[in-house]
Amino acid sequence: MVAGPSWWERAACAGAPLEAFFEEYRSRGKSRAAEYCRSCPVTQECLQDALRAESQQYAGPWGYRAGKTAVERRALGRYQRSA
Ligand code: SF4
Question: Could you identify the atom of ligand 1 that is nearest to the CA of residue 65?
């Protein structure tokens, strides 16, 4: 078993079905993933981790994470790299 960062233990989505984060975005405010992220105490840690990991991938980002859609995270990642 590989240990993750300590903030994962406080994630609101711990134990949540993974598919909830890859559903079609009918409406950002109504997706199951958005419900988890809205109440999550580690959104900032999650977002920084996502941006770091996704900047090292050739494809993606995919799915909903850190209270953001893939499109929103892609734009944030571009902004951070250009700043
Ligand atoms: S911000 Fe969202 S995706 Fe990230 S750990 Fe919290 S609930 Fe999970």
Answer: 3
